[in-house]
RNA sequence: GCUCCCUUCGUCUAGUGGCCCAGGACACCGCCCUCUCAAGGCGGGAACACGAGUUCGAGUCUCGUAGGGAGCGCCA
C-alpha cells in the first residue's frame, strides 16, 4: 500500500506558520517515501469558513510550492457520505440518538467537574433503546467502548495509552444534521486511504476516540504523527502580536519561499549540523520519525539570516522577478533603472529581505528625494571635495567603457593622482550620487545609476555645495 | 479540577550509557579586512530544570518534584 498523507486545514483564516510547517512535513513525508499528498479543506463549520480563506490557503501553498497530488477536497461536498456512514453505525448498534438540550449538557459538565471528574456527557440515552423521534435537540452519538484502553504508537511522541473510561460518547451528527469534526475526519481519512496522519499535537487528545471510530467502522487505523507547536519569540502562542503569522505576509515582507521552507523544516527537525537544505535534500533526508517532541519558538533573526543565504547564493536572474514585484510595490518603475539582477548582486550582501533591497535600490530607480544634510556637510563641503568631484566627472565622461571595473580603475587613478586615500574620493562621490553616506561599493553605486545620471547628479551636487 | 504531552546555551538544535569538564547554527561581544554599510575570516562568553535511583560510568535509562503546554464543545 502506498503511503498517503494529507493536509487538512479549516478555512477560517489565512495559512499560518504552524499550518505551513504541517503542510511541509506532510508533503516531504509523501515525497520522501514515494507516496501521495492530499489536500482536504475542512469546512464543516459553515459559520466561520469563507471562500476568501480557501483562496488564501491555496495561494500560500502555491507560493511555497507545496502542491497536492490530489484535492482540494471539500467536506461540505461529502455530506451524503457522512450521513450514510452515520446511518450504518446506527444500524449496527454502535451509535444512538440523544436528546439533551445544550443547557442540560452544561449542567452535566458542571456536575462532573464538581465531582472532580473531567466534564463529560453522561451517556444517559446510550442504552435506552428509545424509538427515534424528531427533536430539535437530537444528535447522534457514538457508543465509545467503556472499558479497556486505546494504545497507539505516535511517530513523534512515542507510545500513548488512553483509558476508554476517560472518553465520553462523542457527537457524530449535530442537531443541524452536519457531522462533527471527529467524525468527518475519520470518514474522510478512511475514504481517501490516508495511511499517515500528520497534524498538530493539539489533536493527540482526539486520537483515541478517532481510533475507536476506525475500529467501529472496521477500517485500518493509520499511523499518527503529532507535531509540537510553534510558539512566538516570547514563548507564548503565536499570534498577530508577533508580526507576521500569515504565510503571504512573509512574501510581502521580502522572504523567499525556499528560505521560509528551510527555516520551517529546521524548526523541530534536523540532520546533524546541517543548516541549509535544498528542496531535493529535504525530500531525501526528511523522516517524520526524526521530528522533535517539544515546542519551538519562532526566531525572525534566523529566518533573516537564511533568507540572506538564499539571496546570496541563488542565481540573481531567478530572484529578479521577485525583486521587480517589490520594486513595483513601493512605486518604483523597474524599467526606469538598472537591470534588477545587477541590483541584486550589488545589494545582497547588505540586506536580509527583498523588501529592504527594494527600498535600498531606490537610489538607482528614482532621483534623490532627500539629502542627508550631515553627509553633505561632512563630505561635500569638505576640503578638496569639489576638485575630486570635478575630476571624477571628467574621467567618467571620458571613459570608453561604462563598467564597475573601469569605474573602479578611474577612482583609483584619481586617488593616486591627487595623492589622497580612497575614502576621500569615494565618500564625496557617494553622497553626490545617492544623497547619503551609505551604499554598496562605490563602483557599483556609480555604475548602476548609469553614466548620464551619474554626470548629472555630480553636477547637481556641485551646485548644492556652492549654495 | 481531570487526562495527555513537553523540559540541552537567549533561540533552533547535535547527542540513542563511556567518543561530552557537551558539538554546530542564529543572536551577542572582540579582533582582522575595508571607500561607507554590509558580507567574509578569526576568536570569545553562553546550556544538560531540580532531586533520588539503576550502573564501574547518565545529558542519554527509571521514578518523583517543579515549570511549561494541549485537550476536556452539537469548533476544527
Strand and helix layout:
Elements: E1 4-7, H1 17-32, E2 36-41, H2 51-64, E3 70-74, H3 79-91, E4 95-98, H4 102-115, E5 139-142, E6 149-154, E7 158-163, E8 171-173, H5 181-191, E9 196-200, H6 207-216, E10 223-227, E11 230-231, H7 247-252, H8 257-266, H9 279-285, E12 296-297, H10 300-313, H11 316-329, H12 340-347, H13 354-360, H14 362-365, H15 373-380, H16 385-398, H17 404-418, H18 422-434, H19 442-449, H20 451-466
Parallel strand pairs: 1-2, 2-3, 9-10, 11-12
Antiparallel strand pairs: 4-5, 5-8, 6-7
Helix pairs in contact: 1-9, 5-6, 8-10, 11-12, 11-13, 15-18, 16-17, 16-18, 16-20, 17-18, 17-19, 18-19, 18-20, 19-20
The chain binds one RNA strand of 76 nucleotides through helix 4, strand 7, helix 5, strand 12 and helix 10.
Number of strands: 12
Assembly type of the shown chains? single chain
Structural class: mainly alpha
Major sheet size, sense and barrel closure: 3 strands, parallel
Identify the overall geometry.
Answer: elongated
Total of DSSP H or I helical runs spanning 4+ residues: 20
Into which percent range does the helicity of residues fall? Answer: 40-55%
> How far apart are the termini?
81 Å
What percent of residues are in strands? 5-15%
* Low-pLDDT runs: none
Radius of gyration: 31 Å
Mean pLDDT: 93
Identify the strand order in the major beta sheet: 1-2-3
Amino acid at each position: 500500500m502506498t503511503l498517503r498523507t494529507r493536509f487538512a486545514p479549516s478555512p477560517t483564516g489565512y495559512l499560518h506558520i504552524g499550518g505551513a510547517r504541517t503542510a511541509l512535513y506532510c508533503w516531504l513525508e509523501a515525497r520522501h517515501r514515494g507516496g501521495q499528498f492530499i489536500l482536504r479543506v475542512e469546512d464543516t463549520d459553515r459559520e466561520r469558513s469563507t471562500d476568501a480563506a480557501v483562496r488564501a490557503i491555496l495561494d500560500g501553498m502555491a507560493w511555497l510550492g507545496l502542491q497536492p497530488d490530489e484535492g482540494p477536497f471539500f467536506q461540505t461536498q461529502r455530506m451524503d457520505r457522512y450521513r450514510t456512514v452515520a446511518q450504518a453505525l446506527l444500524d449496527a448498534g454502535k451509535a444512538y440518538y440523544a436528546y439533551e438540550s445544550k443547557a442540560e449538557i452544561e449542567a452535566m459538565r458542571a456536575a462532573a467537574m464538581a465531582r472532580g471528574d473531567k466534564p463529560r456527557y453522561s451517556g444517559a440515552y446510550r442504552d435506552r433503546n428509545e424509538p427515534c423521534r424528531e427533536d430539535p435537540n437530537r444528535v447522534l452519538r457514538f457508543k465509545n467502548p467503556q472499558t479497556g484502553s486505546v494504545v497507539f504508537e505516535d511517530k513523534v511522541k512515542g507510545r500513548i495509552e488512553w483509558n476508554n473510561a476517560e472518553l465520553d460518547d462523542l457527537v457524530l451528527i449535530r442537531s443541524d444534521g452536519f457531522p462533527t469534526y471527529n467524525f468527518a475526519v475519520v470518514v474522510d481519512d478512511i475514504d481517501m486511504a490516508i495511511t499517515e496522519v500528520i497534524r498538530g499535537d493539539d489533536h493527540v487528545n482526539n486520537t483515541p476516540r478517532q481510533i475507536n471510530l476506525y475500529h467501529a467502522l472496521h477500517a485500518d487505523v493509520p499511523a499518527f504523527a503529532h507535531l509540537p507547536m510553534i510558539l512566538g519569540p516570547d514563548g507564548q502562542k503565536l499570534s498577530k502580536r508577533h508580526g507576521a503569522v500569515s504565510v503571504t505576509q512573509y512574501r510581502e515582507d521580502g522572504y523567499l519561499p525556499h528560505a521560509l521552507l528551510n527555516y520551517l523544516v529546521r524548526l523541530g527537525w534536523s540532520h546533524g549540523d546541517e543548516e541549509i537544505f535544498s528542496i531535493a535534500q529535504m525530500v531525501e533526508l526528511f523522516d517524520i520519525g526524526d521530528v522533535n517532541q517539544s515546542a519551538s519558538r519562532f526566531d525572525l533573526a534566523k529566518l533573516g539570516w537564511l533568507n540572506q543565504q538564499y539571496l546570496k547564493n541563488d542565481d540573481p536572474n531567478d530572484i529578479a522577478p521577485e525583486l521587480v514585484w517589490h520594486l513595483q510595490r513601493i512605486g518604483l518603475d523597474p524599467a526606469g533603472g538598472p537591470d534588477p539582477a545587477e541590483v541584486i548582486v550589488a545589494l545582497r550582501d547588505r540586506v536580509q529581505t527583498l523588501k529592504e533591497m527594494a527600498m535600498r535600490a531606490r537610489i538607482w530607480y528614482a532621483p534623490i528625494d532627500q539629502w542627508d544634510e550631515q553627509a553633505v556637510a561632512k563630505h561635500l563641503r569638505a576640503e578638496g571635495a569639489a576638485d575630486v568631484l570635478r575630476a571624477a566627472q571628467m574621467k567618467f565622461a571620458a571613459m570608453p567603457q561604462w563598467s564597475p571595473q573601469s569605474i573602479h580603475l578611474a577612482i583609483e587613478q584619481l586617488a593616486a593622482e591627487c595623492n589622497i586615500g580612497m575614502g576621500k574620493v569615494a565618500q564625496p562621490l557617494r553622497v553626490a550620487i545617492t544623497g547619503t553616506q551609505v551604499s554598496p561599493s562605490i563602483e557599483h553605486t556609480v555604475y548602476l545609476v548609469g553614466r548620464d545620471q551619474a554626470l548629472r547628479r555630480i553636477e547637481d551636487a556641485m551646485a548644492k555645495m556652492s549654495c
